[in-house]
Design brief:
This protein has 200 residues and is of the alpha/beta class. It is built from 9 helices and 5 strands; from the N terminus they run βαβααααββαααβα. It has a 5-stranded parallel sheet, with helices on both faces. It binds adenosine-5'-triphosphate.
């Protein structure tokens, strides 16, 4: 099975591409979705978050107030680190299990859509890695429009991530998503053709 990592920055176009891939029958493992699901699969995560961050980051006994926790860790690098130390091992374990399952089901090609593919070194477990790239200004404008956020908020979120240029450097392929979606999807089809030709 060929494993492809798909990454990018906030609002660079990962979902646009992974939706297209899913519509075309390619199985996509969605790391963002898994990062929410692990909270239900492994109740011990919430217990550890409660002991580290207190009951105030919970809406009730079992529901984490993701927004409040997000605001806390966004402003405090140390707290961000301790949250990640709790949750990331579960996310990675779950991602690996789902990929293994797809391999057992004899899928020929799968995509792992993960915003922090490189930060978590999951790119090293893939056969090929693709970065969805846009220039900074386009990225800022698209996220402001989508999230109804201020320019300053968007910039600080972008700057808290590994840069798109660095991700591009670590990738085998780059999809330039500055233009029309149609043009982006043409590039995706081409990259898939090349990967299928090259094989594992
Ligand atoms: P995040 O990681 O923040 O969830 P993402 O990388 O999945 O973002 P998308 O949600 O696919 O990015 O795209 C961000 C926004 O930009 C969306 O509102 C989307 O509709 C829009 N967008 C994506 N690609 C294009 C394009 N080529 N032209 C115009 N708008 C686009």
């Amino acid at each position: 099975m060929i494993k492809i990592g798909l990454t990018g920055g906030i609002g660079s176009g990962k979902s646009t591409i992974s939706n297209f891939l899913k519509e075309n029958g390619i199985k996509v493992v969605d790391a963002d979705k898994i990062s929410r699901e692990v909270l239900n699969i492994y109740p011990e995560i919430n217990k550890r978050i409660r002991s580290e961050f207190g009951a105030e980051v919970f809406l009730n006994e079992e529901t984490l107030n993701r927004k409040m926790l997000g605001n806390i860790i966004f402003k405090d690098a140390e707290k961000k680190k301790s949250f990640e130390n709790i949750i990331i091992p579960y996310i990675i374990k779950e991602i690996r299990e789902r990929i293994d399952l797809l391999e057992k089901e004899k899928e020929k090609i799968i995509v792992l859509d993960a915003p922090t593919l490189m930060e978590n070194k999951l790119n090293e477990e893939m056969d090929y890695n693709i970065t969805v790239w846009v220039d900074r200004e386009t990225q800022i404008e698209r996220v402001m429009e989508r999230d109804k956020s201020s320019r300053g908020e968007v910039i600080s979120r972008i700057d808290s991530q590994m840069s798109l240029d660095k991700k591009k450097e670590l990738s085998d392929f780059t999809i330039d998503n500055r233009g029309e979606v149609e043009d982006t999807l043409k590039q995706v089809k081409k990259v898939l053709r090349v990967i299928k030709e090259m094989g594992k």
